[in-house]
Amino acid sequence: MPHSDFARKIAITGGAGFIGSNLLQHMVRKYPDCLFVNIDCLTYAGNLSNLVGLEQAGNYRFEKIDIRDNQALAACFEKYQFDALIHLAAESHVDRSITGPADFIETNIGGTFNLLEIIRRTTQDGSSFRLHHISTDEVFGSLGPKGYFTEKSAYRPNSPYSASKAASDLLVRSYHKTYGLDVVTTNCSNNYGPYQFPEKLIPLIINNARNGKPLPVYGDGKQIRDWLFVTDHCEAIDLVFHKGIAGETYCIGGHNEMENISIVRLICKLLTQRLGCQPLDRLIQFVTDRPGHDRRYAIDASYIKSQLGWEPRFTFETGIKMTLDWYLENQAWLENCVSGEYRKYYETTYSNR
Ligand code: NAD
Ligand code: DAU
């Protein structure tokens, strides 16, 4: 079907990553009258095999473009005449931002700026183009033992990653205030679930444990994160994208605070039962803490609940079992990620098109 025949033409940046691929699996099937164009440059974190099954969907396209490349982006916007963008593309891993911040500044700030400028320049009236900017609770910094992040919390980012996301949030805000762009921003807590690159805590622990490798726990392991199953995040994005009020921000969280060490011990317990092996918690190793490590994140998600009726569906107990099942059933996916073999999927499936 020609692009012009779709009811809406929606660009999704970062659609080959963890959350982006789960979001595309959700949206492409749910909205067959909309065209979804995945704009992703396939960094180490971009894996097109996360999107298996969508290649043949009539309302899905892939464009291998770096959001730092202004000309390529402009040509893509010209080609599809988008009327909306859900912006997820980012360098996302805090540890990498500590060892090499430059890519985070260039992609998360520079890439977001490029997108904002293209929307501003190519739409007659900014308010006819919806931009949903996907951000993180890390922009708010660290909580003490009490209290929650809300839409009113001050920005106090502590890592180059969170500082770059904070800068991008503020740029997006400024384009609403100054140029009237129709923007919504969501700040979400830690996601977990299928297709998460095994550098993040949960898939890293699953992968190392099943291979009998050490399980690194930073510092005392008592840092707290608020975990949300990724499909719950995707449903929240769907709601905010369609019904959120222009200029508003929405905090999204799982009402599920856990210490890192409790998560690691739980994964060890569940995997030990599944694999029928020696207790895997013997592999836990406390290692040097992450510099600037935020102690606690927790979201008060009452605004999105009262305004849009969103609540997480999955308890952590259910979500972590589904996640473990998925990684055990998809060990080839894990092996491919760790070995870098997943890159061949692009070469064989897409590059000849
Ligand atoms: P991810 O690292 O798994 O995926 C990022 C994707 O962006 C990859 O496909 C990568 O190839 C692409 N990308 C990176 N740089 C690019 C560039 N210059 N041009 C085009 N594509 C590029 O990340 P994720 O965990 O799926 O996170 C997605 C978004 O959600 C990010 O903006 C992140 O800040 C935000 N977020 C993540 C979490 C979480 O727990 N993972 C929580 C809250 C918010
Ligand atoms: O809060 C949302 C953020 O969650 C997102 O914005 C980020 O993109 C995402 O990466 C995530 O950031 P975290 O730093 O919280 O996630 P990570 O999985 O890297 O670490 C989770 C916690 O576990 C954190 O306190 C650090 C700790 N950790 C992590 C790793 C990789 C360990 O103790 N050992 C590890 O090996």
Q: Can you describe what's shown?
A:
The chain is α/β, with parallel strands linked by helices. It has a domain at 7-196 and 228-255 and 293-315: Rossmann fold (3-Layer(aba) Sandwich), CATH 3.40.50. The chain has helices at 18-30, 70-80, 94-99, 102-122, 160-179, 201-210, 230-243, 260-275, 302-308, 316-329, 331-339, 343-349, and strands at 8-13, 34-40, 60-64, 84-87, 130-136, 182-188, 191-192, 215-218, 224-226, 228-229, 249-252, 257-259, 284-287. Strands 3-2-1-4-5-6-11 form a 7-stranded parallel β-sheet, sandwiched between helices. Helix 1 links the parallel strand 1 (8-13) and strand 2. Helix 1 (18-30) crosses helix 7, helix 4 (102-122) packs parallel to helix 5 (160-179) and helix 6 runs parallel beside helix 8 (260-275). The radius of gyration is 20 Å and the shape is globular. The mean pLDDT is 95. The structure holds nicotinamide-adenine-dinucleotide and 2'deoxy-thymidine-5'-diphospho-alpha-D-glucose. Nicotinamide-adenine-dinucleotide binds next to helix 1, helix 4 and strand 5.
What are the defining features of this structure?
alpha/beta; 13 strands; 353 residues; globular; Rossmann fold; binds nicotinamide-adenine-dinucleotide; binds 2'deoxy-thymidine-5'-diphospho-alpha-D-glucose; two-stranded parallel ribbon
